[in-house]
Amino acid sequence: PTIGFQDRPWQMWGSGVFQPQHLVVQRRKTGSIRLGWSEKVPTWVETTITVSFDERRVGGLDFSWTFDDFYSAHTIQTYDLDEDGTLNSLEVRNLRAETFDPLSPADYFVHIWSGEEKQYGFDVDRFGARIEQGQLVYEFSVDLTPPLDPKAEPVTVSLFDREIFVDFSFSESPFLLVSGEMTPGCTFRVARGTGAQSGHPQPVTLACDG
User: Fold this and answer.
1) For residue 138, what are the CA distances in angstroms to 65, 87, 131, 152?
2) Strand runs (DSSP E) across 11-134, as ranges?
């Protein structure tokens, strides 16, 4: 079955996320979401993560996604309607509605744990898109309410598509940034996931001493 969106069932073919002509979004009988391709064409995304602290607790996460050349070219051609090499507010609004908002059932490929407890149902409170040196870049923020306390339990963040159609990797530039006052005695670790994060290739874990 297909997913309902704006009071109508849909399958994303003409202007979907990650290779617009190929993506299909389906809800399986188990209730899980599958974002896949009619033809198995992968998309590569380089990402950075900014961890925002609110009173030394993790209150939000800012993500930047830079898409590969093929997806960028196709999507820019589709949504830069005036062909001026930039995305105006109307173009960004259309791009978000048709390529980003449909990822909400999959939490935008964002996975967050507090200790072993998975967090669900994130709200995106900011979204932007731009063209940078011919590549499409998304920037968005995920609000964490209530904030997560890394002193109580390690906080782990991962960008991961279990169907492996969207391949996330960290940017070569500084890929992990901090905003606000970080909890003293806390450090970040990037390592292949185990336990609750098993299968995730590069989760980022913030853990604190004591």
Assistant:
1) 5, 11, 9, 32
2) 23-27, 33-37, 43-54, 57-67, 110-114, 117-119, 123-132
Condensed to tens digits (0 to 9), the pLDDT of residues 82-114 reads 999 999 999 999 999 999 999 998 899 999 999
Tell which phi-psi region holds residue 66, choosing left (phi > 0), alpha (psi between -120 and 50) or beta: beta
Where b means 16+ CB within 10 Å and e means fewer, 168-205 reads bebeeeebeeeeeebbeebebeeeebeeebeebbbbbb
Please give the Cα distance from 129 to 136 (Å, whole number): 7
Tell me: cis bond preceding 9? Omega within 30 of 0 counts: no
Give the C-alpha separation, 162 to 165, whole Å. 8
Amino acid letter, residue 56:
R
Beta bridge partners of 37: 23
At 33 the pLDDT is 39
- 44 close to 57: Cβ distance less than 8 angstroms: no
